[in-house]
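Course assignment 3, question 2. Fill in each field.
Student: A.L.
Task: Predict the tertiary structure for the chain below.
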Amino acid sequence: MSGSSSLADRFEAERAGLRAVAYRMLGSLAEAEDAVQEAWFKLGRTDVDEVRNLGAWLTTVVGRICLDMLRSRTSRREEPLPERDGSVRLPDPVVTASARVDPEQQVLIADSVGIALMVVLDTLSPAERLAFVLHDMFDVPFDDIAPVLGRTAVATRQLASRARRRVQGAAPAADTDPTRKRDVVDAFLAASRGGDFEALLAVLAPDVVARSDGGTLVPSILRRGADDVASQAITFARYAADAHLVLVNGTPGVVSFTDGRPLSVMSFTIRDGRITALDILTDPDRLASLRMTV
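Answer field:
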């Protein structure tokens, strides 16, 4: 086997994990792929004989690439922050059939990285996000993260600590029992389809938050409170001729279709048997990129 082939094989062995890092950093599946590909280019320009731990080196390289992408995104103000100025920007969902998740997708969505958590990550500064993602999610030592940020290890630790407090405050632990969560989603679907307002109130937390991202063509919607969210759910159900239970970032969710094309992807955050957050992607361009079929 040639040296270049061997290096390519070693990189491919790391690819799934690198995509997982980039997805948590960027919230975009396409940008995550771009970041991983850029890491491959950088590897090709590097003397690998001087790299002691290829996986760790690639992880920090991808982190640096994502950091630059986030800073560029912020400086150009390409995307509004979630729930600011009436706009809602949801991260890309990882949608899989409820029966199985292939190993590569399992790596991508491991550690219960739900949409609600990804929304919170989007509110962190680029430096906070890097410190939190690399250390708390991938166990990268602060001494290795600090040079990427151009800060001391102590300052990097403080960034991660600040980010951790914000994440824990905004995205507290949700239910983990998949059967129980699916029962709640089933009940939500049945009540929505049947127009049963009282049944919807029974599965919605009183302070539930519903976020809908329609992209540039459809206004974003942010609703709070069980009454408002239940009314919207009944209205929306009338437009969805076909709804299927799927896994969205590894947890029970729903994809709705109309005339064979995807209308929405719904992700649920469930705590104590009730829905506390409902995140809905209705952007037709992003839905098309997910290539979902009935």
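Instructor remarks: Strands lie at 95-97, 204-213, 221-224, 242-248, 251-258, 261-271, 274-281. The first helix runs from residue 3 to 26.
Grade: pending
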